[in-house]
């Protein structure tokens, strides 16, 4: 797994083969990790409030501020912050799971730790297929996987665009199931006129530095179910008994310093999306000149973050996806395979189940993520175009304006 | 602070002004000077590395390993996640011996690890496990002893080590309150299979939030790092599942500063701990517990034991009185293990020492917001409370947030074993 969040390495040139004049390499490397820089003055002012109140974790003024702002942003009744999106998912699954049932229906082509999330919630993952157009969980496949043993339906907004959340709501309703959605890559998006965050019983987001909102670490959940929000607030404290709860909790609260950094990031969000859009346009122009690569387009009919650059390798591309990623990595381009390996491919000590997965298996070796985020410039993208042209066997073709 | 309480009517519970103008919280909050942490944050925010086992996390692990005198210090998101990770890494199954008096989070960690608790009573002077208490219960199906080193002291560490080794059980210490304590000529950190420390805002060693798992066992350390995250995993080893227990660069930055400041912070807490012992010792029914079972304590926890009959009111009523005066003292973190969900409906006998302690301990404020003068004012307040106890016990509930829960309508001084709620933010676990 390629590392993200690199600071400039000590001597990267020493690790690379001799660089040809025509074939760009990148030092420091460029990654898929957003790493947007938070505003210092904002962070200091925020953290100063926490210090002044003597509340630095397990609740404090910046967590309260962040939760209020995010609830407004997502247009939901409540927002509950957590130490990570991972534990937000685990606690939400536990809180929502129908008692006496053991399975969670979820896609296989998704976040590599999603099955572990289910395992912590003592649920068996039942993998279902995705839709080839959206790359997201297919409502029909999800419905076919639902049974009397399904405790909860877990949808995921894919890395670009959204899952068909309204259709998933219909499936959940038809089967009497709770619906939780992992929205960690979709915090800015709207879907069918509604803000992401308001679908299902709850949606979960991440404040990891690689994501659109940078809190260093962290996560949050949005919901219109205020009693769910209250239950989760008790569960994340590490001492739910003190909060009057009889539920199983684990300490998973967001410390004030992370909340302060996240608030700074939220303040910068619109400007960030603008910069992302500009990067995306540059990618559109650059990749349009190449054969064998298809940039997965954002659905611009609705607000979106333009953050992630997802590319499909088509029949004309001469290399395998994994070889492409490796060759890019060697050149300091920290591209990543998209959700690979698919979860149903992984051995695990806990039980998993699956339905038919023909689309997942057809797609699982074709997609990769190209560098994006705050530290990627248009110059990087143009040079990357040159590198891709070289890898694609079009060595003589120099993209307009892109010099080695 | 307003003038001393001359009579019951001066107490906030009965309509008088609070003794302290602003809330006096339990937590430590030994923070570096703003200029210092601002400089650190400036460098961190502009440096581009925010998490994923960055340079500061790597540095703090090296420094913590040195501080704790262990081969491996694995920093984690917080103490509870660290404890659950440790139990998963050890692969324990079946039953776990726990002290009958334990933090809620410690007992609940067993549920996350799929273990069934077997509470054993604690010894009154240490409020902790002894080898003899555990000996009878270390039968079949017990794969691990999860002992707690509470209140700045320790359990029978050496006895438990010998017992666990002889009987083939794993041994893990919840040392959430014990960072910096020493035992048998070395830090209280390298005993048993692993010890889990808290680096939360209320701890004398603090990252504002966080935890640290210490072990001398290379394999266990490798599994912990692989469970924590793929970042900083080091040597790849198979693990049952991952936990996303990462420690950010921001947490590491604060931990590094706290390590540098540890000695003066500890010295401050020790000085005030002694002041509390002297100032409160003369009040009937109150005793500040002396940390026992360690060679030296970190003195971060000032634990007050209430003898209801002598003092004149229950622990919970005292907390309500103090809350009104803006003193946000709390019950200590320790509850009766047998009552902690999801285990509360199992049949476990009441264990008498734990039951008595669960209802009688108070944690008083320590840390930089507390001075000798504040200690003296608190002593004066507690003395006055003792004198006014009959009137205060009989008073109707009139407080916001939490006061309702603990007042018995008749005001009769019946002993209650339930814990009072945590008040204020930052109760560390």
Summarize the structure.
With 404 residues, chain A is α/β, with parallel strands linked by helices. Chain A has helices at 40-53, 61-74, 85-96, 114-120, 139-145, 165-175, 226-235, 256-267, 269-288, 321-330, 358-363, 378-391, and strands spanning 30-31, 78-82, 103-107, 124-128, 150-156, 179-182, 190-191, 194-195, 202-206, 219-223, 293-295, 309-313, 333-334, 336-337, 353-354, 367-370.
How would you describe what is shown here?
The complex is a heterodimer of chains A (404) and B (429). Chain A is of the alpha/beta class and 404 residues long. Chain A contains twelve helices and 16 strands. Chain A has an eight-stranded mixed β-sheet, with helices on both faces. In chain A, α3 (85-96) crosses α7. Chain A is globular, with a radius of gyration of 22 Å. Mean pLDDT of chain A is 93; it is low at 1-19 and 395-404. Chain B has 429 residues and is of the alpha/beta class. Chain B contains 14 helices and 17 strands. In chain B, a hairpin with a 2-residue loop joins β8 and β9. The longest helix of chain B is centred in the middle third of the chain and has 19 residues, at 262-280. Chain B is globular and about 65 Å long. Chains A and B meet through α1, α4 and α8 of A and α1, α3, α4 and α8 of B.
Q: Say what oligomer this is.
A: heterodimer
Could you give the distance between the termini of chain A? Answer: 28 Å
How much strand of chain B?
Answer: 15-25%
Helix fraction bin of chain A: 25-40%
Write out the strand line-up for the largest beta sheet of chain B, numbering strands in chain order. 2-11-10-7-6-3-5
Q: Determine the most extensive contact between two protein chains.
A: A-B, 64 and 66 residues
DSSP helix fraction of chain B? 25-40%
Largest sheet of chain B: 7 strands, mixed
- Major sheet: arrangement of strands of chain A: 2-10-9-6-5-3-4-15
Alpha plus pi helix count of chain A: 12
Mean residue pLDDT of chain A: 93
Q: Please report the number of helical segments of chain B.
A: 14
Strand content of chain A: 5-15%
Radius of gyration of chain B: 22 Å
Q: On the 0-100 scale, what is the average pLDDT of chain B?
A: 90
> Can you summarize the main beta sheet of chain A?
8 strands, mixed
> What are the segments of chain B in which pLDDT stays under 50 over at least 5 consecutive residues?
399-429
Distance between the termini of chain B: 31 Å
Structural class of chain B: alpha/beta
Topology pattern of chain A, helix = H, strand = E: EHHEHEHEHEHEEEEEHHHEEHEEEHEH
